[in-house]
Amino acid sequence: MYKVLIACPTHESKAYSFDRWWERVQALTFPTCEVLVVDNSPTEENADKMRAAGCPVIWDREIAADTHAMLRITHSMEIIRQRFLAGDWKWWFNLEADIIPPINVLEMMLHWGRESDWISHAYPMRGGNQTDDEQGIGCSILSRRLIQDFRFGSIGDNSPDGGLWQMVRPARKYRTMEMWGYFQVDHLQAPE
User: Are 119 and 141 in contact (CB under 8 A)?
Assistant: First the structure.
C-alpha cells in the first residue's frame, strides 16, 4: 500500500471550513495517510487553533505578511512540495481547505487514475450556480514523478493551478486524468 500525504495551504479566511474539513480528513478510509497543512495567515493564531484540534500545521511565517493571495498560496505549496519530496510518500493528495470529498475519495481516484501523474476531480464552483463544476488543483492527487520536476515558485504570476497545468500539459511526459462527476464533492462557502 502506497503512502499518501494529504496536504494543502490555508489561511484564516478559510477558518469557517476547518472543522468540517478536518472531520472529513480524519474519516478518510485510505489506510496509509499523513496530513500536513501550511497556514499563511498574518499571525500564528489560526495555526494554533488547528494544532489544538490535532491537525499537523506549519505556520508559513516567511510569507504571512500582507502579500497577494496567489504569492502566499504558491509559497505554501512549495513548502509542501519540499516536505513531500523529503518524505517517502508516493502521492500528494492536495485537498483544498474548503473541499469536502467522500470518505473513500482516495480509493476511487487511485482506482481510476492509478497510472496517472495528476488525477484531478471537478468540484462545484463557490457561489453562483452550484451545479457548475470547476477543475483545479483543489481535489487532486499528484505523483512523486510530477512533483520532483518543478518548483511552485517558478510558475510566475499564475495561480498554482494554472501555472502547474501550463508546465505539465506541454511537457507531454505526464499522464493526467480529469474526473468529472465520478462522485460528489462539496465546496464550502464562507457564511455571509
Answer: yes
Any idea of the CA torsion for 15, 17, 19, 23, to the nearest 10 degrees?
A: -140
Torsion angle in degrees (nearest 10) through CA of 17, 143, 181, 159? 60
Sort strands 139-143 and 118-121 into parallel, antiparallel or unpaired: antiparallel
pLDDT in tens, 135-188: 678 899 999 999 998 777 655 556 666 677 777 777 778 888 888 878 888 888
Q: Is residue 93 classed as helix, strand or coil in its secondary structure? A: strand
Domains belonging to the chain, first-starting first, are 4-187 (3.90.550.10)
- Contact criterion met (CB below 8 Å) for 121 and 101: yes
Whose cell is 501550511? That residue is 38
Grid cell of 114 as nine digits: 492509478
pLDDT in tens, 108-131: 999 999 899 999 888 777 655 555
Q: What are the residues facing 38 on neighbouring strands?
A: 9, 58
